[in-house]
User: What shape does this take?
Amino acid sequence: MTPITDPYIISDKTVKEPPSALYRQLAFLGPGFILSASIVGSGELIATTVLGAKAGFAALWIILISCLAKVAVQLEFGKHAILTGETAMQAFNKLPGLTLGKGKWIVWTIFLLAILKIVQIGGILGGTVIVLNMLFSGFSTSTWTIITTLVVGALIFNGRYGWIEKFSLLMIAMFTILTITSLISLRYTVYSFSFSDILDGLRFNLSGEIVGIAIGAFGITGVASDEIIAYNYWCLEKGYASYTGPRQETQEWKKRAQGWINIMYLDAFVAMIIYTVVTIAFYLLGAAVLHNRGDIPQGNQVIETIALIYTQSLGPGVKNVYLVGAFFALFSSLFASLAAWTRLYADIFGQIGWIDFSNVDQRRKMIAIFAWLFPFTWAAAYLFIDSPVLMVLSGGVVGSFMLFIVIFAALHFKYKRTTLVTSGLLYDTAFWISVISILGVGVYGIMKVIL
Assistant: This one.
């Protein structure tokens, strides 16, 4: 078999049969790890703990919905990538609706909404800078901002898929271990919580003053809208579509396609377990420690306040250990987000006719340019606004609106574009639960704000 030189080009030469043994399938996992690196960061470290600090255990249900409800929509994006070999924006450009120039309205909408999320990623960069400044106070915040910007740009500038996947997995492991340890350690402190507290958090009830935070947390925890879109690129770059080969209406192709789809399902399931466990751990820590103390993370004191989670459960001596872990959590989001954004915007530019995305040289050149452009834009947003909590949660609200667009696309993919390989009752049920949950929470939140 000829090695894949460009995973965005599908040919008969790249076809590979999917392994049937589970231990061999594990070698083909990876796209979900990059998503987890993006998820296990700002959403959990900032948005989830802020929600827990303000709401106590009352909003645990929305965190669970946020982690579990969006997965089936994510799977539809991965499935579409495997069956068609299309990038996310190539697929979006085939959706029904108004065309503006060479791009459909939905491509332009994603273009503009993603720009609004510059504020959110700027908040993630700001949180990273604050951690570095607390660890190494010899440099100013501005200096650490420049250093962080240059480092993340350099890591993605020539970053190929394999490097991005491995580095993401390393950062996930670093912070997950510390967070779970902290949660277990709460059992031996005055902030220990009971099973009844958890049950209280599963009742569908939110007060008006925290519904805005809840909507923002729903948009940013679990698989967010931009991460669902990004999953398309990681499935392609992992090789799922290349291994499946050009679309053919033969039983052999359908069987091979279903085999790689099943591996993609396993990838998404493992990722879901990782980020759901960590997200719940963050929320419970915020509810148990910060809510009881009345400490609400805000402004540039967000990391210092959240550090109470660790100092109260493990003792003040672990503060620096926490800060190192916090750095990996935030930097993982920054790293994975930049990797995704470079591909997303290069793809958008291709669909509106500004570059030829299918040309590997043009695509890589554009990705390299964005690898430097976006970090400096995020840095400017942070230095101007200077409030990581506000910045991150505002991005979550934008992400919630983007989810409605993602749902529209997923419905079209499922019932118009990927019918050649049918799905079972369990998948269809999960898909509609996902769609209804996203719409339901969105409408619920809007009604609570209005009323």
Q: What stands out?
A: Residues 251-293 form the longest helix (43 residues).
